[in-house]
Amino acid sequence: MTEANMTKEAVTVAIGSDHAGFRLKEEIIGLLQEEGYAFRDFGTFSEESVDYPDIALDVAKAVRSGEYQRGILICGTGIGIGIAANKMEGIRAALCHDTFSAKASREHNDANILTMGERIVGPGLAKDIAGVWLKTDFAGGRHARRVQKIIDFEKS
Ligand code: RB5
After folding, report:
1. What domains, with CATH codes, occur in the chain?
2. Which residues contact ligand 1 via a Cβ below 6 A?
């Protein structure tokens, strides 16, 4: 990654998970603390069963409102929590289980929420994915035109 596509200032992060993503959420919070990101943990706070749409919508609202610039959502697979978040206008949640997708989701899609599945990816790789995703800027240019078409469709 070049200096040009590294985020210059640390972004603020809203993070959340369901019970199936709780342990991985704690690992990612460790990364946020180590790297000095300002963040808020929207729960859940134990492995007791909860419904992933509730957490997804809390984090998505915090990102849509601008209170936090980015969101990270974790469930068992990363699928359900991402589907729920993507129902909210202005949210572009990307399921990424590799660093190439994480980087592309920022550069090409301006993804504002990263989703991952604790049952799919180990903590080491998940931290690398989140680290790259948080540091990568949107590339703009032709990608801005394409993202704008999604925004226009949402508003129509
Ligand atoms: C919970 O068992 C599981 O369904 C949830 O974490 C998620 O994987 C849904 O997509």
Report:
1. 2-155 (3.40.1400.10)
2. 18, 20, 52, 75-77, 79-80
